[in-house]
């Protein structure tokens, strides 16, 4: 879409969806910059919606301008996902008895790969967020 449009109501609403995330900018000028960059980087409003939906599914902190750049290329790839099968119907998640999971079709496999790539990139960006999973009991606190 065209650059320099910081008053797009669709993109403003999409950035507002991120307001519940950690570190959402308080400064109106920074929020306006996020709207402008989202509007400029997305090829259309559907792509902008896909960008923000992807961010909300995978992150807990509000996006920064640099995040929107990588998110735009990531979701352009995601929009070229294979078609869904009869089980998933092209949805991102299949809800079953064990909760929501990815389908086993080509689309589900591609979504899992995108998810793993995003997790690796997130780990590179914030290495202090490592989660240690232990099968044993926790030691007693003294």
Which characteristics define this entry?
142 residues, 2 domains, 5 helices, two-stranded antiparallel ribbon, 4% strand, mainly alpha
Please describe what this structure looks like.
This protein has 142 residues and is mostly helical. The chain has two domains: 1-79, no CATH class; 81-127, no CATH class. 49% of the residues lie in helices and 4% in strands. The protein contains five helices and two strands, in the order ααααββα. The chain has helices at 9-16, 28-41, 45-58, 65-78, 106-125; strands at 94-96, 99-101. The chain has a two-stranded antiparallel sheet with strand order 1-2. Helix 1 (9-16) packs parallel to helix 3, helix 2 runs parallel beside helix 4 (65-78) and helix 3 crosses helix 4 (65-78). The protein is globular and about 45 Å long. The protein starts with 8 loop residues before the first helix and ends in a 17-residue tail after the last helix. The relative contact order is 0.11. The model has no long low-confidence stretch (mean pLDDT 82).
Q: Summarize the helix and strand pattern as letters.
A: HHHHEEH
Tell me the span between the first and last alpha carbons. 59 Å
Mean pLDDT across residues: 82
What is the overall shape? Answer: globular
Largest sheet: 2 strands, antiparallel
Number of strands: 2
Oligomer: single chain
Set down the secondary structure blueprint.
Blueprint: H1 9-16, H2 28-41, H3 45-58, H4 65-78, E1 94-96, E2 99-101, H5 106-125
Antiparallel strand pairs: 1-2
Helix pairs in contact: 1-2, 1-3, 2-4, 3-4
């Amino acid at each position: 879409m065209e650059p320099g449009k910081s008053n797009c109501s669709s993109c403003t609403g999409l950035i507002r969806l991120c307001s519940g995330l950690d570190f959402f900018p308080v400064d109106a000028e920074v929020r306006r910059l996020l709207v402008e960059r989202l509007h400029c980087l997305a090829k259309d409003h559907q792509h902008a919606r896909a960008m923000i939906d992807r961010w909300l599914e995978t992150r807990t902190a509000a996006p920064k301008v640099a995040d929107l750049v990588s998110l735009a290329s990531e979701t352009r790839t995601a929009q070229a996902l294979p078609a869904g099968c009869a089980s998933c119907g092209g949805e991102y998640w299949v809800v079953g008895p064990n909760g929501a999971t990815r389908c086993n079709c080509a689309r589900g496999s591609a979504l899992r790969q995108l998810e793993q790539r995003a997790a690796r990139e997130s780990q590179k960006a914030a290495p202090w967020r490592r989660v240690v999973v232990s099968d044993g009991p926790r030691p007693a606190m003294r």
